[in-house]
Q: What sequence folds into this?
């Protein structure tokens, strides 16, 4: 304890130094006076007495010095002095300080920006109580498609809730949307689309939600039949409560108009309550909450529409839960034979997986961000290598000074402290610059990132970022100081004899190693960037099967009550099409339940005439004019309005599906239907070109195009498609110019139909590879920075080599060497370094481009052409970096060079 | 004179200062130095100034405390006094010193 106390006293001593100095002086004077008085009493003259007192006391200056050392922490005291000296030195060597600070600041800025993203997007947990125990349950079906993952069915929910011992609580929910009706009693109230969170009774408990007013849902609230009844209660989001009810506290018991029906309000939630999906991705907020209709006794259906969420029992691991749930899944056919047949289980290779909720929500963004963070980390290393090189060069230039200091009794600790003061000042300045750059970089990053990237909209510089910047600066400062001082060990003795300040052999080797590392890392980054760029180019060249240019897609939502029948839906759609097509800018209009790249990639069971239970196939409900509007090539013909409204339209299948179902035969005229086998079948009237519905990097999807209105006796799943995507093909110019007209026409036909989203199809296409283009542009920036920094590093090392060999080169020139021979000498040296760097980098690239495997498209991670071209480019960069020093070497004036000696 | 006077053995100045303060009560630096010299009866070459860093060290450790008061000639002077922790330390140090001396003595006797 006393030691700690002494530390503290010493620490405090740093700050009260002046006062203690004065006090000590007073003490010493008093002491001397008393001593002298004693001597006088013993008979000495006043002068002699004073002199004797001084003798007895000892050296006053020494006492002061020891006292001062004892008072503060000498290391810190000394460090403060070093800092002052260092400041002077840095001001003196302005070029060195500026270049070093800027280079490192750039490195720190990029790193901190990327680290902030990593920290706040990937590493930070979800905003719910004990988030590490929250898990996602879902069902991979590799038999359907290798990466297909389905949500949960109610059967799974009931089963896991009952059986899974590792899960404390299991809940399911689904997000739908509907229309908050215009309230006739409130003027200016308009219909709006609102997201509806349909939740099982456990979900609020799982997420730790408490109501602001009223109550949450009970299990009782969920005991209604989904198909025939409406939910018995609604809980309002804070926002809807404020806007629609003015935040009145008597809202409980009133009713809310939603989808043209009234629901009794039982509760209000706080403003920050969101489901994981709406909290993570900036696509909208939940407006109303309703209980999910769940009847444990209803017949189980194989319908995987619900998001599964669960909380692990205390002490249970994700692995244990995964093992248990997977084992339970195998028992599904015994428990629910009607829904989960053994042939289905085998065919789809159905199972249930458990994973951390956060990782599931992040999806592919998680890998993308780790990858980019890695790339930026490499840039930081390259930048640091440059600064380390500068420090080495500087310490070489100061070698004599340092040697003298050592010879005069300075310890290695002193030297280190002195260098550390310099590097610390530089690095802290770099950290400040870095933080400023990082805040700009973050804004750019957030603006460039695909809008579907989870959590990106909330990323900000925070305390953790600042701490990271300081940490990076301190680590860099210490390593620079260590680098710069470690070498002087070997040649203390010889140092003073040497005349010109030159680098030691060892130091030269370190610098070479640094440069080789830089070149190698730059090659790795450039290869990654080049591979990504080629992938994106390949993606853009893919023929999607439709023409996205000039197409606007408007997503609308027809309220359930007003548009209950399919004929009503069709009538609405026809009216809309007829009004839109009058606009001279519009070339064609249609609508469909789903359009390419809208994210719907599900499939449903289809029954084929004569073949029975068919495979799981994607279904689209399309109106007349759909294929023309999207310019999807079609063989045969597409149904027209009379057929559609007469319910005799027939169906269209995609080309590959036609081959798959009827190999070697013509599909036209064959029969197919959606729900339940048996006649009547839809007759196939046309075969459409394959469309890359799920993204350009995915194989074309097998699709059956059914009409908007189903045939008599052959109902289609979901009844009339109420969520419609209106497809507008424009004639020329900017497609988005037609959007205002479309909006007013939609509002004119029925004010109760909300517009959910509007986008040009080209934007949707760009969005489908936004992750890749984002990764590509960042990797490319990183690679350019890396190349630039390595070039500077190489230039620095070679120029330094030329300067330190000035005598030798001058001698050669004086003895008649031709300038071009000297030039070659220097360039050869450069190329040696570059070649070694490229060789190492090649190995690194081959090993690390595997990380890109899932992101690459149409190019192998080891594509020789890419590797070769990147290698050639870097080689060229190396030659360019070496050329100026080489040229300078050949222009040396032998007389000047030799005189320098 | 040089022959008969010993340097202050390393580490014993603290012990001497603590003992002095324990016996004499509060003293200023000069008083402490005089007292140690008196007891040593000329056998010790003490640079009186060296007790100031020692006093600071002891105070930092919390073994002595100081306050300003008036000296014999009515000048302001800092008076040092031993603390409870200091007494404990003194006891421990004394025992340690005695053990060391006994051990060295045994060693020397054995040698001869």
A:
């Amino acid at each position: 304890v006393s030691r700690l106390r002494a530390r503290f006293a010493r620490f405090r001593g740093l700050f009260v130094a002046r006062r203690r100095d004065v006090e000590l002086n007073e003490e010493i004077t008093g002491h001397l006076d008393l001593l002298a008085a004693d001597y006088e009493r013993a008979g000495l003259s006043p002068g002699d007495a004073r002199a004797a007192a001084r003798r007895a006391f000892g050296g006053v200056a020494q006492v002061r010095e020891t006292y001062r050392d004892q008072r503060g922490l000498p290391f810190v005291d000394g460090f403060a002095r070093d800092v002052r000296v260092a400041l002077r030195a840095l001001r003196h060597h302005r070029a060195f300080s500026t270049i070093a600070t800027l280079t490192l600041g750039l490195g720190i800025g990029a790193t901190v920006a990327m680290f902030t993203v990593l920290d706040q997007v990937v590493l930070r947990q979800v905003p719910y109580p004990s988030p590490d125990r929250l898990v996602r349950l879902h069902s991979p079906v590799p038999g359907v498609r290798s990466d297909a993952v389905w949500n949960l069915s109610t059967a799974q929910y009931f089963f896991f809730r009952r059986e899974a011992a590792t899960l404390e609580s299991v809940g399911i929910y689904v997000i739908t949307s509907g229309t908050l009706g215009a309230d006739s009693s409130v003027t200016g109230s308009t219909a709006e689309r609102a997201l509806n969170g349909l939740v099982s009774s456990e979900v609020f408990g799982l997420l730790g939600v408490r109501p602001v007013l009223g109550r949450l849902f009970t299990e009782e609230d969920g005991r209604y039949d989904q198909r025939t009844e409406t939910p018995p209660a609604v809980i309002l989001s804070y926002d809807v409560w404020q806007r629609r009810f003015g935040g009145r506290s008597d809202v409980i018991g009133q009713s809310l108009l939603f989808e043209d029906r009234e629901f009794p309000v039982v509760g209000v939630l706080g403003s920050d309550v969101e489901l994981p999906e709406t909290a993570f991705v900036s696509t909208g907020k939940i407006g109303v909450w309703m209980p999910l209709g769940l009847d444990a006794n209803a017949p189980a259906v194989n319908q995987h529409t619900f998001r599964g969420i669960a909380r692990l029992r205390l002490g249970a691991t994700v692995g244990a839960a995964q093992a248990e749930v997977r084992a339970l899944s195998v028992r599904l056919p015994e428990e629910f034979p009607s829904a989960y047949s053994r042939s289905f289980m085998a065919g789809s290779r159905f199972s249930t997986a458990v994973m951390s909720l956060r990782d599931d929500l992040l999806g592919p963004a998680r890998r993308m961000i780790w990858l980019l963070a890695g790339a930026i980390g490499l840039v930081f290393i390259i930048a640091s290598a440059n600064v380390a090189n500068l420090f080495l060069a500087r310490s070489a230039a100061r070698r004599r000074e340092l040697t003298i200091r050592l010879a005069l009794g300075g310890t290695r600790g002193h030297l280190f402290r002195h260098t550390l003061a310099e590097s610390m000042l530089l690095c802290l300045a770099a950290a400040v610059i870095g933080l400023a750059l990082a805040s700009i970089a973050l804004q750019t990053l957030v603006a460039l990132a695909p809008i579907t990237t989870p959590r990106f909209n909330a990323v900000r510089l925070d305390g953790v970022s600042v701490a990271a910047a300081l940490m990076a600066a301190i680590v860099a400062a210490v390593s620079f100081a260590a680098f710069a001082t470690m070498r002087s060990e070997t040649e203390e003795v010889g140092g003073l004899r040497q005349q010109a300040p030159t680098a030691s052999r060892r130091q030269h080797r370190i610098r070479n190693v640094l440069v080789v590392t830089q070149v190698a890392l730059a090659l790795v980054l450039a290869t990654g960037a080049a591979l990504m760029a080629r992938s994106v180019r390949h993606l853009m060249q893919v023929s999607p099967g439709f023409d996205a240019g000039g197409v606007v897609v408007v997503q609308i939502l027809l309220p359930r009550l007003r548009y209950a029948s399919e004929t009503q839906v069709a009538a609405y759609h026809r009216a809309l099409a007829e009004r839109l097509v009058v606009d001279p800018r519009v070339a064609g209009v249609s609508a469909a339940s789903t359009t390419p790249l809208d994210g719907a990639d599900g499939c449903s069971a289809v029954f084929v005439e004569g073949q029975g239970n068919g495979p799981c196939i994607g279904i689209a409900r399309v109106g007349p004019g759909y294929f023309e509007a999207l310019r999807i090539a079609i063989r045969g013909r597409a149904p027209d309005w009379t057929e559609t409204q007469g319910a005799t339209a027939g169906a269209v299948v995609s080309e590959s599906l036609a081959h798959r179902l009827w190999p070697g035969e013509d599909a036209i005229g064959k029969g197919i239907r959606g729900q339940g086998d048996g006649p009547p079948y839809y007759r196939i009237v046309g075969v459409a070109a394959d469309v890359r519905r799920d993204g350009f990097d995915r194989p074309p999807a097998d699709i059956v195009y059914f009409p908007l209105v189903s045939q008599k006796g052959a109902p289609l799943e979901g009844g009339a498609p109420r969520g419609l995507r209106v497809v507008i093909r424009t004639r020329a110019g900017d497609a988005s110019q037609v959007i205002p007209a479309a909006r007013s026409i939609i509002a004119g036909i029925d004010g109760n139909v909300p517009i959910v989203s509007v986008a040009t199809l080209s934007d949707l296409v760009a969005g489908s590879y936004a992750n890749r283009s984002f990764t590509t542009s960042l990797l490319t920036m990183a690679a350019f920075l890396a190349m630039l920094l390595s070039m500077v590093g190489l230039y620095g090392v070679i120029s330094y080599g030329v300067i330190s060999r000035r005598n030798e080169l001058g001698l050669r020139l004086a003895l008649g060497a031709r300038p071009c021979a000297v030039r070659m000498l220097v360039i050869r040296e450069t190329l040696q370094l570059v070649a070694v760097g490229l060789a190492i980098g090649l190995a690194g690239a081959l090993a690390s481009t595997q990380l890109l495997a899932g992101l690459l498209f149409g190019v192998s991670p080891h594509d020789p052409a890419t590797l070769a071209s990147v290698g050639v480019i870097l080689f060229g960069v190396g030659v360019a970096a070496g050329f100026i020093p080489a040229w300078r070497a050949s222009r040396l004036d032998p007389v000047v060079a030799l005189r320098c000696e | 004179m040089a022959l008969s006077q010993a340097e202050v053995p390393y580490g014993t100045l603290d012990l001497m200062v603590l003992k002095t303060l324990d016996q004499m009560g509060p003293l200023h630096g000069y008083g402490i130095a005089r007292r140690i010299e008196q007891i040593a009866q000329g056998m010790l070459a003490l640079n009186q100034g060296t007790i100031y860093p020692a006093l600071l060290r002891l105070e930092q450790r919390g073994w002595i405390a100081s306050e300003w008061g008036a000296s014999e000639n009515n000048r302001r002077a800092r008076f040092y006094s031993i603390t409870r922790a200091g007494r404990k330390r003194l006891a421990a140090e004394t025992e340690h010193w005695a053990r060391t001396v006994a051990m060295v003595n045994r060693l020397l006797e054995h040698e001869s």
Notes: Residues 412-448 of chain A form the longest helix (37 residues). Chain A touches chain B at residues 2-3, 5-6, 9-10, 13, 23-24, 26-28, 30-31, 33-35, 37-38, 56-60, 62-63, 66-67, 69-71 (CB under 8 Å). Residues 28 and 60 of chain A are 8 Å apart (CA to CA). The first strand of chain A starts at residue 134 and ends at 140.
